Amino acid sequence: MFSNLLKNISPVVKNLLLINILFYIAQWTIPSFTQNLELYPISSEDFKPWQLATHFFMHSPYSIGHIFFNMFALVIFGSQLERVWGAQRFLGYYISCALGAAVLHLGVNYYRIHIIEINLSLEDLELFRNAAYEAFQKGMNFKDPVLAQLNLLHHTPMLGASGAVFGLLAAFGYLFPNTELMLLFPPIPIKAKYFVIGYAALELYLGVSNNPSDNVAHFAHLGGALVGIIIVLYWGKNRNSFF
Q1: Does residue 243 belong to any structural domain of this protein?
Q2: How many domains does the chain have?
Q3: What is the DSSP letter of 158?
Q4: Could you tell me how far CA 199 lies from the centroid of its own chain?
Q5: Beta pairing partners, 191
């Protein structure tokens, strides 16, 4: 199965796969590599503009599943889309979805920070501004749950290709709506259009729920899918029929 899968990888997807793997290896071997290239909130002292272009080649070094499932989806859906669109259009689409994911994530993060800060007293806000970054650098946090949440919003980075991958899912569901996909859990077939809609609805629910213990950037996923849908709808004005 995997040997046939590797043989059928399209050129741009193959290069994206290689870059992600090289970045993942570098995260284990080069000090501060991850911190410099993952995407920090705009309010963080660690934010750098180039992180917008590097974060989607990064994955959690503590979870092999993070990179595995993203790269698996990239190969499965990306290779098919690249054959339909061609290399140049596919690469532009992939990067656009990744950037769209970052913008929506940063925007929602900024809004959540603003909502908390306008409800803080001047004393608490001053305390936070004086101690937050140093506390975060030392792996510590505030005892006050509101200040603790605010500290995480200010300084927790985002990384991963999930936003771009969600864009690929959106495009695949649009172009091949009736193609049956086999779910892993549970192992049942489902049409691509229902899979994409259901997955997006779940991500929206989880994103709006804003569970403090949930460290997944759900709005980044939705941002990638949203940008992807906008692009394929624009391209789809004169599209051919797909199955």
Answers
A1: no
A2: 1
A3: B
A4: 14
A5: 180
